[in-house]
Amino acid sequence: MTANWGHGMNKQRSIEIVVGAFMAAGLVALFFLAMRVSNLSAAGDGSGYALTARFANVGSLKARAPVTMAGVRVGRVEDVRFDKATYEAVVTMRIDPAVDSIPDDTFANIFTAGLLGEQYVGLEAGGSEEYLKAGDEIQHTQSALVLEQMIGQFLFSKAEEG
């Protein structure tokens, strides 16, 4: 009777170990999924080349935000800093090495994904025959549209009309 009881405990313990292993594997998978969704795992391995652009207002643009061209991700925002000499935001972007023919008259715009989504940099290619190289600065930029400013301007214009 005692030998049978010990065998039942062993089976129970092995089931608990297997369930624990599956739980641990599930948590690890969940962690990697969370990293992938938050773009932390794709922060960049340093490959590609850097371009900069100056904006009067970047809104809530952050490092690791996507840089897109024609809706396709071609890079990531590497750094956003304030230039105290010109009072502008300087955005450094890391562009994938495969995308090596961006015209030098390209426009850089800050867009918002959806109504209240994250902000990203959208590049619109120009028609120049010359291409941007590593370390170049995009000259043509359009700042982020800040929802609060737009609402304030709308209300101000309505108040002036009435």
Helix/strand layout:
Elements: H1 2-37, E1 49-55, E2 66-69, E3 72-83, E4 88-95, E5 107-112, E6 119-124, E7 137-138, E8 140-142, H2 147-161
Parallel strand pairs: 1-7, 2-6, 5-8
Antiparallel strand pairs: 1-4, 2-3, 3-4, 5-6
Main features:
162 residues, 8-stranded mixed β-sheet, 2 helices, flat
Structural class: alpha/beta
| Ends apart, CA distance between termini | 93 Å
Radius of gyration: 25 Å
Order of helices and strands: HEEEEEEEEH
Query: Helix tally?
Result: 2
Instruction: Give the strand order of the largest sheet, numbering strands 1, 2, ... along the chain.
Output: 7-1-4-3-2-6-5-8
Main sheet overview = 8 strands, mixed
Q: Helical amount among residues, as a percent range?
A: 25-40%
Q: Quick one: overall form?
A: flat
Strand content: 25-35%
Low-confidence stretches: none
